[in-house]
Design a protein that fits this description.
transport; 4-stranded antiparallel beta sheet; alpha/beta
Length: 335
């Protein structure tokens, strides 16, 4: 599948995609076992979104994930690559994928508010966190306070935008004094490199590549400068698909859990796979390996996790990153 780098998420496209999911409920309650008790499965093929980094990339490239599912007579088709979570969600509502990749919860929440019948089926929290706001070393910008009057590239309703909002708030800078430039990662990187924006709020590995490529430095680093989580990795599908194929969804989740454990246990091998896809230097790879990132998964009905997720969604709505409040427990499904 070829994905345009200009593929952007918006309310109209999500609403149009939602109309393709005929019969899907716009809202619902969390299920804690009824779907799995039925063990439903109406397809032997699952179409999974993937991007140029993270869990789905390693699963796709390593091949063990597909072998696990083949053992349950499930064929895997990979759809992508996508530059970030929003366009992979559009593929789900548009009918060309069954799951987005393990991407940001924020654009999924935005899609639900816009009318798309998404459900969260599983969550992943990886540590340490390495999203950062970077500037060029010769820019004259040495702190978040120096962003006043400057242009900062972020992805709308995504991790980049929320991190910038949090950084400004922590440093007492009014959002109105900073220009948010909404760009997807493939457009943001050259914009930053060419000086069309002064700073970029971005996640791994793109931020690590840009830090080396453009001789940049951090002025805000999520892992050390932010003491709470507002955004999580999530496995998202349509409610109808999950309820009609609960056994398949469970098999996909379990296979991803095994892949995530392998990544946690084998950082060099995992980062080498990502390096080959991203075509970046050994220095960047070794920097990422040094994180020794660990994956921890949460079921969709984990009450402790959902309480934290609700706080995050409220935080986003209070700051108008999400257009309105949303009850997250209405949009999770445990299989």
């Amino acid at each position: 599948m070829t994905v345009s780098k200009h593929f952007k998420i918006n309310r109209r496209s999500l609403l149009q995609g939602a109309t393709l999911a005929l019969g899907a409920a716009a809202t619902g309650v969390a299920l804690t076992g009824s779907a799995s008790a039925q063990g439903t499965r109406n397809t032997d093929t699952v179409r999974l979104g993937w991007g140029r980094g993270g869990l789905p990339l390693v699963a796709k490239q390593r091949g063990e994930f597909e072998k696990i599912l083949a053992g349950e007579d499930i064929k895997v088709e990979w759809v992508g690559p996508f530059p970030n979570h929003a366009p992979s969600l559009q593929a789900v509502v548009g009918g060309s994928a069954d799951f987005g990749f393990w991407g940001s919860t924020t654009p999924a929440l935005a899609g639900i508010i816009a009318g798309s019948p998404f459900v969260f089926t599983n969550f992943n929290v990886y540590t340490p966190r390495s999203t950062a706001i970077i500037v060029k070393k010769d820019s004259g910008i040495d702190s978040v306070a120096d962003l006043v009057g400057k242009k900062v590239a972020v992805n709308r309703s995504g991790l980049g935008e929320f991190l910038l909002v949090a950084a400004l708030e922590k440093n007492g800078v009014d959002r109105k004094d900073v220009e948010f430039v909404y760009l997807n990662p493939p457009d943001a990187s050259p914009a930053f490199g060419q000086g069309r924006v002064d700073a970029w709020s971005m996640w791994t590995p793109a931020v690590d590549i840009a830090r080396e490529q453009y001789d940049a430095k951090d002025i805000f680093f999520e892992g050390t400068d932010l003491d709470f989580l507002i955004d999580y990795s999530s496995l998202v599908t349509l409610r109808d698909f999950a309820t009609n194929n609960s056994a398949l969804v469970r098999a996909v989740i379990d296979a991803y859990h095994q892949e995530g454990q392998w990544i946690s246990d084998n950082p060099l091998e995992a980062e080498t796979i990502a390096q080959k896809e991203g075509q970046y230097s050994d220095a960047v790879r070794d920097h990422l390996v040094a994180y020794k990132r660990q994956n921890k998964f949460y079921e969709a009905d984990d009450t402790g996790f959902l309480a934290d997720f609700q706080k995050a969604a409220d935080w986003l709505a209070e700051r108008s990153i999400l257009p309105e409040r949303i009850t997250v427990s209405d949009h999770v499904l445990r299989v």
